Task: inverse folding
């Protein structure tokens, strides 16, 4: 079946199976920043923005997204670059596998919250798992990004 | 879950008609847990375009459309007001924002999931359901029924009354399912304790008679806790033993009761 999607501001008509998940659709169309982690809605590395809301692409059927705007880090280059500056400065970057999902979650926070506390940040990123870090540097980086780039 | 085809109904009646055509046809909520199901369905009926995602605030109730996401609920002011924020407290502890932007209240209710953190709270708040055909039904009757409800859920209605609430999710990690969850809600007329993740479906017990008018609060709470453990069976699964769940229930039901009484004073 055919579905019209707005992938990173570009209108696309994609052919999908009824039980195809967005993660598979995106990767099949070379949107490779979106990673496959647990593939069971638990790790957050497949996070994309659907109409601006962080959503797990491993658990959304593509066929349900007719007309929706899908944004990945490829479609947020300027904002993601800004975010990564803080990430690098704070030593929050290690293997990088969780970065795309975390970056989009942080960007969504920036557009949703006014002055989030450290607790707000920790609650918001609770399902973006990182197996390298202990989240301390990441939370510090996100806090600075939200405070200084707003 | 394997899905052979998808169906976008014209309206609710169309959804109801098609969902009854075959046992291999399933009405979908948000679909957050599709990957956990090994089932194969011939046709999935999607309610996405039927305008069932609204939250309406009336004088006596907050009415939530079945396709409203858990995240939309937790960020709505009227939901924050319910039971001094108990519903939002429970919602915020369900996985992460990315999943709560997918999972819907209708899917959570119709799934009758034993691990649900939202059903116990809705039960304690005396929520009611509106179906396409069966019309009104209390959530309590729905949960108690063993029969499969072959209907389409349209709305969940939560009474707007003065209530004080306590919710505790006990889990190994924030992203894991609960070992046990405990809800205590005190309204002007009753005090209800609901246990979820027993590991079966959530069950409630009215403890008003033990608490109201009691002179010795400690004794009254102790008797109320004992009555909860007698009335609501707890069991064992891979997450916890029966004995451990009972210890958790003793501790958190007691804390919950003391908290809702303290909040009142």
Result:
């Amino acid at each position: 079946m055919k579905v019209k999607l707005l992938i990173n501001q570009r209108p696309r008509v994609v052919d999908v199976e009824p039980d195809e998940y967005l993660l598979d659709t995106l990767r099949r169309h070379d949107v490779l920043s979106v990673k496959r982690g647990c593939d069971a809605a638990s790790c957050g590395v497949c996070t994309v923005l659907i109409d601006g809301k962080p959503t797990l692409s491993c658990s959304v059927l593509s066929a349900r997204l007719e007309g929706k705007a899908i944004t990945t880090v490829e479609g947020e280059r300027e904002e993601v670059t800004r975010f990564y500056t803080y990430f690098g400065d704070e030593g929050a970057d290690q293997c990088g596998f969780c970065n795309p999902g975390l970056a989009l979650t942080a960007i969504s926070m920036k557009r949703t919250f006014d002055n989030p506390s450290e607790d707000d940040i920790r609650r918001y990123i609770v399902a973006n798992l990182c197996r390298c870090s202990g989240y301390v540097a990441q939370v510090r980086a996100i806090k600075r990004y939200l405070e200084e780039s707003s | 879950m394997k899905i052979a085809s998808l169906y976008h109904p014209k309206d609710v009646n169309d959804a109801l008609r098609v969902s009854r055509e075959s046992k291999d046809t399933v009405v979908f909520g948000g679909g957050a847990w599709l990957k956990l199901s090994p089932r194969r369905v011939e046709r999935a009926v999607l309610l996405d375009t039927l305008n069932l995602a609204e939250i309406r605030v009336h004088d006596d109730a907050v009415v939530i459309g079945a396709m409203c996401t858990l995240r939309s609920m937790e960020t709505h002011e009227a939901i924050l007001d319910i039971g001094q924020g108990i519903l939002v407290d429970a919602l915020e502890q369900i996985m992460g924002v990315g999943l709560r932007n997918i999972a819907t209240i209708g899917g959570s209710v119709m799934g009758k999931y034993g691990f649900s953190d939202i059903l116990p709270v809705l039960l304690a708040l005396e929520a009611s359901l509106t179906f396409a055909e069966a019309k009104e039904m209390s959530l309590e009757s729905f949960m108690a029924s063993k029969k499969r409800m072959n209907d389409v859920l349209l709305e969940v209605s939560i009474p707007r009354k003065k209530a004080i609430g306590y919710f505790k999710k006990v889990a190994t990690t924030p992203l894991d399912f609960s070992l046990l969850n405990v809800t205590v809600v005190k309204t002007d007329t009753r005090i209800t304790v609901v246990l979820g993740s027993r590991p079966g479906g959530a069950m409630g017990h009215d403890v008003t008679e033990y608490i109201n008018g009691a002179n010795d609060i400690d004794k009254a709470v102790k008797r109320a806790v004992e009555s909860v453990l007698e009335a609501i069976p707890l069991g064992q699964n891979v997450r916890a033993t029966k004995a451990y769940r009972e210890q958790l229930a003793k501790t958190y039901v007691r804390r919950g009761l003391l908290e809702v009484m303290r909040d009142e004073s």
Remarks:
- The CA atoms of residues 125 and 158 of chain B lie 7 Å apart.
- Chain B has a mean pLDDT of 94.
- Chain B touches chain A through 26 residues (CB under 8 Å).
